[in-house]
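SUBJECT: A protein chain and its fold
Encoding: whole-number codes for local backbone shapes
RECORD BEGINS BELOW THIS LINE
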Amino acid sequence: MTDKPRIGYIGIGIMGQAMTLRLLDQGYRVMAWNREPARLDLVTPHGAIAAASPADVTSHSDIVLMCVLNTDAVESCVFGENGVVRTGKGGQLLIDFSTADPHRTREMAVRLRGQSGMTWVDAPVSGGPDAARHGTLTVMAGGEPDAIEAIRPLMADIAGNFTHMGPVGAGQTTKIINQTIVGTGFVVMAEALALAESAGIDAALLPECLAGGLADSSLLRRIYPQMHARAFVPPKSYARQLLKDMKALVEFADGLGLTLPAAKTATELYAAHVEAGNAMRDSASIIDRYETKTQPDH
């Protein structure tokens, strides 16, 4: 027997799969649901229990975790037919790892509390599926202090960096800022690589050469080599998903009366990339937008 809470997981995409496997490794009982049932085959052989609906997940769980495509998907899973709200009750927690709109997140949290008594924590993540699999994610959370304290033991098994940023919605706001850095950063890495390859230097040496300097970063150490190798299969993230996040951040900035030229340009580049048929390719494939004179054999 285990004293760990019973976990429900809604959304077995790239991140949900990795997080579910991590939780199973840590000894949690996990009941999982996904809109496309075939993806449950990625986690049920490892011990996850297949659920019939989000409501089914919720009725058998102490804490419900969710990571789905966008805000509309979040709302559907929580409030739609056979959604979380149908079986939720006071004392249960819903932790949303999705990247969603901060304002709608706050509205949904109030609605869920009013209709079921459940408490909402928005906890978008950064780090990708490898970090999710190894429990080293960066998690930026919004929620009530009591709820945050209640989930710290769980977060210790999921995240290497867990920060309470404020009330519900603060996590999503922080994720928008994170995606501003990530989305523009992917474009900067592509342009740095294009310069290096076209100029004829050994482009592979750039991360080593710049280590410890102001240009050093996780993007330079992880994404730049991936772009250099054109290692896009299997995808670690989808171009369509990063584009969705970039569009959301531009809209969010507009609502604050801000103009962000770099973010807007990066968004336009990703829009063109996705429209050219690259929606389901790795986000790092943005390098394909740049013609370089020298590219590695692959």
Q: What stands out?
A: The chain is about 50% helix and 15% strand. Residues 99 and 124 are 6 Å apart (CA to CA).
